Amino acid sequence: MRDPRYDILFEPMAIGPLTAKNRFYQVPHCNGGGYRDPSAAAAMRGIKAEGGWGVIFTEQTEMHHTSEITPFIELRLWEDKDIPMLRKMARAMKTHGALAGIQLAYSGINGPNMYTKEVPLAPSALPIRTFTNDPVQARAMDKSDIRNLRRWFVNAAKRCKLAEFDLICLYGAHGFGIFQHFLSRATNQRSDEYGGSLENRSRFAREVIADMRDAVGDTMAITLRVSLDETIGELGFSNAEVRDFIAMNAELPDLWDLAQGTWEDCSGPSRFKEEAAQEALVRGIRDLSPKPVVGVGRFTSPDVMAKMIRQGTLDFIGCARPSIADPFLPKKIEEGRIDDIRECIGCNICITGDMTQAISRCTQNPTFMEEWRRGWHPEKIATRGDSENVLVIGSGPAGLEAARALSLRGYDVAVAEAREAFGGRVARERLLPGLSAWGRVADYRLYQIGQRPNVQMYPGSALSVDEVLDFGFQNICIATGAQWRADGVSRQHVMPMPKVGALPVFTPDDVMEGRLPSGKVVVFDDDHYYMGGVLAELAAQKGCDVTLVTPSAYVSDWTINTLEQGAIHRRLIAAGVKIVLNTGVASLRADGVETNCTYTDQRGHIACDAVIMVASRIANDGLFHALRARQADWADAGIRSVQLIGDAAAPGPIAWATFAGHRYARELDTGVWPDETGGDWGDTLPFRREITELAVD
Ligand code: ADP
Ligand code: SF4
Question: Which of 373, 460, 472, 544 is deepest in the core (most CB within 10 A)?
Fold first, then answer.
């Protein structure tokens, strides 16, 4: 069944005293659940075991109370009390013969200690380096602090063993772990034997690993995760120094785990980073040490993976996002089901779960972090309830995901789409600069639907109420999407923006349909996700003289959560876009826009020939309401339920739409939707949650 080209991915490989069953290595990744939702996180890891990963890691685990990164929710191992939660996770990981790994993080110069109120400890006394510039500084560790920290690592290692983990990864990448803080001349400015030369800067890592080996090394493997290049300029731990460090300490860990730069560098979205983007930085490192090497690169193609191993660049294929988008990726390669792989689109919505301390979502895999909460399995779904068929109206992410999952349940499904092309918003957004990989949302679903005999697809079918009533489907799923507003209503303006004169206004829909302004253009971004920045880039590419105006202090503000805000700003500067921050558009004038300062309301004027208005969207819910108004006719038409989902219910990111489509399909005929209950719903929580146990005293 398996293509022999991929056999190399299934060869076992030793890591210290242990052997991984194959080369699929799920590197540590956050999930926004962490210590708040430990059973949800454990079940998510358990699904990866079932999906065939050879090595599975936790997210970063704060290993001592003197270093933590509140508000971000990861795992904690501060005392024995934390062991049962972690053991639950380790056991879930090991269910199908995978090795279970735990990543230990001592955050040093990255840990503001907002929760424990401890003074942060770091190699040198500097301000804490976080996303939020917390006004906190660290104290430089003295020799006794270093002795203590070495002991805390040993204590943590013993607890990891009690928790039944196989591997420990020491975090020294992304600027987040103390090992990097010691290795880098930027964060280690010591003049004692722990600072100065590379040998001295390596001392801390050598000592900790030696101590841990003494404590648990007979049965556990110890890996070290370092960044391939710190990417912070001359003083940073450069790629050349990383190579010197590995050559100098060739036998140090049982495996080298190579990440890249800051987290933004390492988890670059597809808009800015290709698959295998780190290859040049990794190549040759494997020859410097006898220990195996794992590297990442948003690998979704088995050919690229096999090439990485065959050409001797990597021993293990490290995946975080590809394992989120498809936890069954290894199994599908093993079973020769390459076309069934649900490829990561590189949108970084999963990361927003961590950045916002919510629980993570995945655009491609709506079951992510719902394995325990809702009992959703990415590859299994219950057979249908007592109705038989569904008409899905609209073939965007919501409609296609609903149709795919409904067909697996065994419903007869018809998908009606007004346009000739299926895919809704992604059919158009995939054509925007940098967003081509987003088309995978539609491609994956259309291919899967195409394999099913019970789905009929009807392009060019804009349905009216009468047609829907005539068709005789039992369930109507309305996923008709949304349109961008031209009137400026969003956050600055909750009522239409005042307009004097006839300045041409283009919406993102106009631009995506190919109607582009020319000359001097103002892009007004009061949406704050990617669209404003992308359209400014596109207009500049097309030769417009572009000024992007936004009331926010940042271009594409919300993309801080997808780790691409800096890259977007850089790209717009390179494209020649003028950026005007902290500024609204008070009104549209015949010859330009009247601006206002967000803080003082001081008015200004920017002359332009046209405005691209990136405001909010308005749901296409007319068909739904018209059908509701005809509820008296439903019984005669054989209709049992009419449900509004996705952007047509409330516009949001694509991941919200795939979740809505999946949820609709899972829950149809389970008695939770208003039409199944006579209008009542919401009295019970629709998912399980974990509640902190009350202390006895
Ligand atoms: P979502 O993100 O919620 O899936 P999209 O906007 O991506 O929403 O997709 C909605 C799709 O529904 C669009 O392709 C649109 O052409 C289609 N559509 C809208 N109204 C109708 C209708 N009355 N009949 C059939 N298709 C429709
Ligand atoms: Fe990939 Fe986006 Fe899913 Fe993250 S949310 S795993 S980037 S598809």
Answer: 544
pLDDT at res. 260: 86
The response to whether residue 462 sits with its C-beta less than 6 Å from ligand 1 reads yes
Q: pLDDT, tens digit, for every residue of 137-169?
A: 999 999 999 999 999 999 999 999 999 999 999
Mean pLDDT to the nearest integer, 285-308: 96
Which ligand is closest to the CA of 617, given by its number? Answer: 1
Best mutation site among 431, 438, 463, 620 for ligand 1 pocket (most ligand atoms within 8 Å of CB): 620
**Closest atom of ligand 2 to CA, residue 348:** 7
Contact call for residues 193 and 200 (beta carbons, < 8 A): yes
Q: Residue 675's pLDDT band (boundaries 50, 70, 90)?
A: confident
CA 645 to chain centre: 22
State the pairing for strand pair 293-295/316-319: parallel
Residue 174 shares a structural domain with residue 299:
yes
Q: What is the CATH number of the domain that holds 583?
A: 3.50.50.60
pLDDT of residue 676: 85
pLDDT above 70: percentage of residues in the chain: 100
Atom of ligand 2 nearest to the CA of 324: 6
Instruction: Measure the CA–CA gap between 371 and 45, rounded to whole angstroms.
Output: 9
CATH number of domain containing 248: 3.20.20.70
30, 48, 321: residue to mutate for ligand 2 pocket, most atoms within 8 A of CB? 321
Same-domain status, 223 and 327: yes
Q: Is the CB of 344 inside a 6 Å radius of any atom of ligand 2? A: yes
Ligand nearest to the CA of 476: 1
Q: Which residue has a Cα nearest atom 2 of ligand 2? A: 347
What is the model's pLDDT at position 682?
87
- Do 554 and 627 fall within a single domain? no
User: Is 687 among the domain residues?
Assistant: no
Give pLDDT, residue 642.
Answer: 96
CA geometry: angle at 527 spanning 526 and 529, to 5°?
135
Last residue of one domain, picked from the residues 582, 600, 617: 617
Q: How far is the CA of 78 from the centre of ligand 2 (A)?
A: 31
pLDDT category, 677, cuts 50, 70, 90? confident
| Distance of alpha carbon 80 from alpha carbon 155, whole angstroms | 10
CA of 324 relative to ligand 2 center, distance in Å: 7
What CATH number is associated with residue 470? 3.40.50.720
pLDDT tens per residue, range 575-609:
999 999 999 999 999 999 999 999 999 999 999 99
**363 pocket-lining for ligand 1 (C-beta < 6 Å):** no
Same-domain status, 599 and 661: no
The count of domains in the chain is 3
- For CA atoms 659, 662, 665, 670, give the dihedral sign: negative
For residue 626, how far is its CA from the centre of ligand 1 (angstroms)? 16
Identify whether 697 is part of a domain: no
In a domain, 366, yes or no: no
On whether both 267 and 156 belong to a single domain, the answer is: yes
In a domain, 471, yes or no: yes
Pairing state of beta strands 583-589 and 592-597?
antiparallel
Least Cα distance to 126 among 65, 64, 186 occurs for: 186
Q: Are residues 165 and 234 in the same domain?
A: yes
Within this chain, do residues 140 and 73 fall inside the same structural domain, yes or no? yes
Question: Whose Cα sits closest to atom 6 in ligand 2?
Answer: 321
Give 455 Cα–ligand 1 centroid separation in angstroms. 17
Cβ–ligand 2 distance for 255 under 6 Å, the answer: no
pTM for the predicted model, two decimal places: 0.97
Q: Are residues 227 and 101 in the same domain?
A: yes
Q: How confident is the model at residue 234 (pLDDT cuts 50, 70, 90)?
A: confident
Q: Which ligand is nearest to the CA of 438?
A: 2
d(CA 694, CA 689): 15
pLDDT score recorded for residue 525 = 98
| Beta strands, E only, 23-166 | 24-26, 55-62, 75-76, 99-105, 121-122, 139-140
Using an 8 Å Cβ cutoff, are 299 and 317 in contact? yes
Q: Domain range for residue 278?
A: 4-355
362 lines ligand 2 (CB under 6 A): yes
